[in-house]
Amino acid sequence: MSREIRVAALGLGRLGYYHTKNLKEKVRGAKLVSVADPFGDQAQKAAAELGVEKWTKNPDDVFQDPEIDAVIIVTPTTTHGEMIKKAAKHGKHIFVEKPLTQSLNEAEEVIQAVEDHQVICQVGFMRRFDPSYYDAKKRIEAGDIGKPIYFKGITRDFTCPPEEFIKNSGGIFLDCSIHDYDIARYLMGAEITSVSAHGTVVQHPYMSKYNDVDQAITYIEFDSGAAGDVEASRNSRHGYDIRAEIIGTEGSLFVGTFRNRNAILLNAKGSNYEVIPDFQTRFNDAYLLELEEFIKCVQENKEPRITALDSKINMQIAAAATKSFLNNGEKIFLETSKTANLSVG
Ligand SMILES: NC(=O)c1ccc[n+]([C@@H]2O[C@H](COP(=O)([O-])OP(=O)(O)OC[C@H]3O[C@@H](n4cnc5c(N)ncnc54)[C@H](O)[C@@H]3O)[C@@H](O)[C@H]2O)c1
């Protein structure tokens, strides 16, 4: 029988509490032993709600706790680098939300720390675990659409995150489009060689304070000769709208819909069309499957489907897109690495 992995959760906000509850209630092989969040009464409240003995406002308590094997880090992006380095130094295995860190320099440092301390580090690119994207990947590898030649990705948020989040997010390309850069590389089985990005503030003026935008587009080219485009929006009042199209030489794949349920209600008032309201609803399965995979990787000492090194490539693409956007869409070329694992997993 596999050993039980004792886990602590760091950061109990929008996504952190959701991951922590999943871990406590659903992930086999894991035991939630501690929760940490420095602000308000979040840690104490989560501990009471989830029946966890230990809670703390000081994340260092978690790193120094010999009872803990692994941590899940769902804190603001600006804190990821510091958290990962501390966790690795104390020999804790790491699941960290995307993006890996906020800067590429920090990404280098955490990759080194993970290597030096020989811990597992998986990054939260959950689309690779979503059953629809995963099915698409298997069909592409089986040759069902021939050679993939064009990728289209759509990521539209139903509600714009609050200013406090935007401030620490690293901007729309690093925070939002990075999901599409990752899934584009994975589905196309190819690395991105150039980006050209544009963006505009169409609805939320506070974006400009952080050199950020609420509507953006990145044109991408791959080392396979394929091309694509990635749209990111914070203005999707029709629902949380996440879709992809992969056009191949022999056919196409369409992933995702903004429809949440299939039952259609028709009555005197009209009809209902329940749309997906948020990321937790759309990626319910994927968020659970990625945590299950993380625990399995720790138990079996195996490399995760999405590593820190692989996540650095996504950050390089996002950094190039941000630079392109700031330079009026200038085409930026990227050096491609052949080390990433883009197979089905
Ligand atoms: N994969 C996805 O789909 C997805 C979706 C949303 C957010 N995220 C990522 O998750 C991370 C958190 O996002 P969120 O929306 O949950 O943010 P949030 O602001 O709602 O929550 C962050 C939490 O971390 C706490 N915190 C701050 N500093 C801390 C520290 N040093 N130690 C422990 N806790 C600390 C805050 O008090 C807060 O409770 C971000 O990196 C974001 O990019 C990923």
Order of strands across the widest beta sheet? 12-11-7-10-9-8-15
The CATH class assignment of the largest domain is Alpha Beta
Determine the CATH superfamily of the largest domain.
Dihydrodipicolinate Reductase, domain 2
* Hetero ligands: nicotinamide-adenine-dinucleotide
Family: Belongs to the Gfo/Idh/MocA family.
Keywords: Oxidoreductase
EC number: 1.1.1.370
Domain Gfo/Idh/MocA-like oxidoreductase N-terminal: 5-125
Which secondary structure elements does this structure contain, and how are they paired or packed?
Elements (H helix, E strand, L loop, with lengths): L4 E6 L5 H10 L4 E7 L5 H9 L3 E3 L2 H5 L6 E4 L6 H10 L3 E4 L7 H13 L4 E3 L7 H11 L6 E9 L6 H5 L4 H17 L3 E9 L14 E8 L4 E7 L7 E8 L3 E4 L10 E2 L2 E2 L7 H4 L1 H17 L7 H19 L5 E2 L12
Parallel strand pairs: 1-2, 1-4, 2-3, 4-5, 5-6, 7-10
Antiparallel strand pairs: 7-11, 8-9, 8-15, 9-10, 11-12, 13-14
Helix pairs in contact: 4-5, 5-11, 6-8, 8-11
